[in-house]
Specification:
Helix content is 58%, strand content 5%. By secondary structure, the chain is mostly helical. Helix 1 runs parallel beside helix 5.
């Protein structure tokens, strides 16, 4: 009897990885996104009384929104962002603890605000669901800014023509304790001028209207909004008479030409030409052109925003070598360095970069910056907009502890991105074995 043939090993069971798209948000989910976006803009100046100050109502609104969307399954923690947030949190906590042990002053409120404001940034959704959420937020933002731009244009034109005199209606209707302090919403065109720059009544400063309107123009290009809306947005930008919005629009325009020129249509070019023409024919053109040399003029707005903060921080770090490692303390930038807010000389507007490096040191501050940049740029669903937001946050505004701006940035780019492991759920699935598979399997031996 011949020896039996050796048994062949059974073919290993195949396991396939199938991408499964996350649940798309429902109409109710998108209505919640829209409502939160509109409220975030319209409550810009509203705060919740907390001691001698008022904390932006944007914080409780954001946490309520995040809780509802997590409960409804739209948002969940992004793994990479969560890890980086915890690393940055540990680093800033270590520097703050060292200062506390050393007996140096710091603001616990400022540190807690940093922690609380950016915690929702670890939440995101991705793929088509992320695009749905960001599109809903973008449309709500553009439509809200169209209305506010029209209001701002009326504010400014009404004063120029004498049909209306400046009056802050919000301060009349809302108790002082519920208005966010330390912002110059009553900003004259020039010293001793009765005409005020437009802030659409509800925004913290004219520069907010300027930057938000410029951002809405760029988002409008992505969403292909009607040309007349772009004209109204440009009118709102001009009525704020602030150079930061002009800079943001110029940067965004350059990004459009480099990254997405297909977004520009003939109607948009016509709208831009009409808007620029109206500005050039108005008194706004002369006022904006007169500010060209501000970077070389100490005491000017441009100098206070783009030159003084970096000079003061470099000198502050050099004055005490330990500050480069552990920082000068949370919330201590304006107390230890020149700042009109605490009576220390000319006005200095400390942006995100100088504030983080001075208060938490180069390492811890750098980790926070890395977290913010990653959250804004990592697989964001839109072109152009994330880059423009990066310039707005890090260069044009002091937005580190401004919940109003931080949560708009979250809604308009980072909420719809995230790492690929979180964006796409991989499910292990065993394919069913068909009759042909059974026929092809080796026959049992005798």
């Amino acid at each position: 009897m011949s020896a039996a043939a050796p048994e062949r090993p059974a073919a290993p069971e195949q396991v396939h990885l199938h991408p499964v798209e996350e649940r798309r948000p429902t109409r109710t989910d998108l209505r919640i996104v829209t409502a939160f976006t509109v409220l975030l803009v319209l409550t810009n100046r509203i705060g919740v009384p907390a001691g001698d100050t008022a904390i932006s109502i944007g914080i409780p609104l954001a946490y309520a929104f995040a809780g509802v969307m997590v409960f409804r399954g739209v948002l969940r923690p992004d793994r990479l962002r969560t890890e980086l947030y915890l690393v940055a949190l540990a680093a800033t906590l270590a520097t703050t603890a060292w200062l506390a042990v050393s007996g140096r002053a710091f603001s616990l409120t400022s540190y807690l605000l940093l922690v609380v404001i950016y915690l929702p940034w670890v939440l995101a959704t991705g793929g088509r669901a992320g695009r749905d959420v960001v599109h809903a937020a973008g449309r709500a933002f553009v439509n809200t800014l169209v209305a506010l731009s029209a209001l701002g244009a009326f504010q400014f034109a009404g004063q120029l023509t004498g049909v209306w005199s400046f009056r802050d209606y919000l301060s009349t209707w809302v108790p002082t304790a519920w208005i966010v302090p330390f912002y110059n919403f009553d900003n004259p065109l020039a010293y001793d001028s009765p005409i005020r720059k437009a802030n659409a009544f509800v925004l913290l400063e004219p520069s907010f209207l300027s930057q938000y309107a410029a951002l809405a123009v760029l988002i409008g290009l992505v969403l292909h909004v009607r040309a007349w809306k772009q004209v109204v947005l440009l009118a709102g930008l001009a009525s704020a008479v602030s150079g930061t919005g002009v800079v943001l629009l110029a940067v965004g325009g350059l990004l459009v030409l480099l990254r997405a020129p297909q977004l520009v249509r003939p109607s948009h070019l016509l709208a831009g030409a009409v808007g620029i023409g109206l500005v050039l024919l108005s008194p706004v053109a002369e006022l904006l052109l007169s500010r060209r040399g501000e970077l070389a003029e100490p005491g000017s707005s441009g100098y206070a925003r783009f030159v003084s903060p970096y000079r003061e921080v470099l000198e502050g770090l050099a004055a005490d070598s330990s500050r480069s490692l552990v920082g000068g303390g949370a919330g201590m930038t304006e107390r230890l360095l020149a700042s009109n807010r605490y009576g220390g000389g000319d006005d200095v507007l400390y942006g995100v970069l100088p504030k983080l490096f001075f208060e938490y040191g180069i390492l811890a501050g750098g980790l926070v910056i890395l977290f913010l940049v990653l959250a804004m740029l990592d697989r964001a669903p839109w072109p152009v907009v994330p880059g423009a937001l990066l310039v707005m946050v890090f260069v044009l505004s002091g937005a580190l502890l401004q919940p109003q701006t931080a949560y708009l940035v979250w809604l308009l780019c980072s909420i719809g991105g995230g790492d690929v492991v979180r964006r796409t759920v991989l499910r292990r699935q065993r394919p069913p074995r068909s009759a042909s598979d059974l026929d092809a399997s080796p026959a049992p031996t005798a």
